[in-house]
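Sorry to interrupt, but I need a hand with the structure work. Please put the record directly below this note.
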Amino acid sequence: FATEAVPANRWLPMTIRESRVSAVSEFVAAKAVATNDDDEHEPGGATISTSTSPSWCQHSSGRPTGRRGHSTTIVNDQVYIFGGATLKCVCELQDNDGPLQGEGGKQRRCTSENVYSNELWHFSPLTAMFTQLQRMGPEEPWPKGREQHSATALPNGDIIVIGGISTERGSFENDGDYLKITGENSASSLLADVWRMRDPHHISSHLFYGIDTSSNNDMSLPLELIPGHIRSHKLSISLNDKEGCEMCIHAIQAKLSLDLRCLKGIEYVKLTGPGEDVAHETKIFVGSMDNPEAECQHSSLHLLFSDNAEESVLSYASIPTSGSFRPASSLMSTFGGLPIDGEWTLSIALSKPIHPEKEYHDHASYLLNWELEVDVKPCVARAKWEKLQPKMSSSSPASIFLPRRLHTTVAVDDSIFVAGGFAERRLSDLWRFDYDSNTWTELNNHAATTSRVGSKTWPMNGQAASLGPSGLLAFGGIAKYGHLEQGHDLWHLDFFGNEDWVPVPIPQNASAHDGGSFIHGIPYRRYLSTIGFL
């Protein structure tokens, strides 16, 4: 037997993969300077300040630039990163006093600008790759750039973004070891808007019946299976989601119902899917001729072929009569990721009988029905944002949900609880946003007191927090009093235990040091970062 060490809390750095298309290259973007307080801007962000840094513009476009105050949300094991304060490269053609370069005697000059970003990035833990998501269409709304907002996933996969800070008047100032934002009127830079984003990789399940497409006598079901011939039945699928997105296969399995005069007579069952240039096909059952003299047996068959089944159909010499089986060849290896739309064909080959006068004198064989059960998702993930206009509930009609940043949100069913944050003062109020009714309800009114959970003080400000199976987990942040020191401690709040914050011990490892983000196996001190459970 084998033994394993006792599990220990530890941080592990992740290596990010990048496609060849997004190799290190110059990032060129149109200069986006916000001139009003409209809520909708092109993805990229509002300009805060400018400094010349041409060499900085050489970076990879296959991953987000370093940032703070962004949000991280996990939906169905997919990670979405929105917004944050970051640097962006902007290049322009300017008059050149020296030797002529560029177009028309102009030289291209690049600057790095501190911006509130409204980029939306998707990270796949399976492939360890980033992808920047775009909008559905050029006229679709998109939230303005911001940081220190919240982004919360609902059970249906929708993501709700609330508040944050975004200003055209503010600027970054370096104050010691941390960055702060100043402006003529910091309160006007705070946001209280609410945005909903549909899950860009939303998965939907569909069931297609072969019998539904029987439109003529030649192809109608039941379909007689003739010994020594290959008989086929076709199924046409046309499926787009309500946004008109082309859908691709995320999971697939096939069901068959047959009436067979002789079980050993099936040579193979083949499924063929659509394709632009060449059709994709796989054999889900292949018969064996080990015992051709075996006696025939009339049977009704009801089979499910799935890559997730425990037993393989290859373990049977003749086709089984019922149950779930792994196909002879993997369905997902053949059809996974391909568009679902098009013509699907099920083909069944029956062998010629050795003793036709004994085996096929009284019964014929038939394909009674077949089904495809598929889970699909958009072939190309795109974001669809909608700005919500919440109302105050009847229980708190005179209340006002204050614009804020650095608040904490937790989703419970279809409600989002919003706790505290910063406005002109530190807030400790508690609100509930009901998604179905699109209403705000104030649950307490202690906006001028210190932020607490019950009677327990939060360990830091600006920490990353995430709700997990065992309670609330918080990382990093800035101490609320005294010297503004950034933290790298991990804290846990057990809602079902003593309801107090408890530090999570993480043993240091002197040999674990990547020189960039980790030291002794623990991430560097930070605030306005994000954390999530997978």
Notes: The helical segments are 331-335, 356-359. Confidence is low (pLDDT under 50) at residues 21-39, 46-54, 169-188, 446-457. The first helix runs from residue 331 to 335.
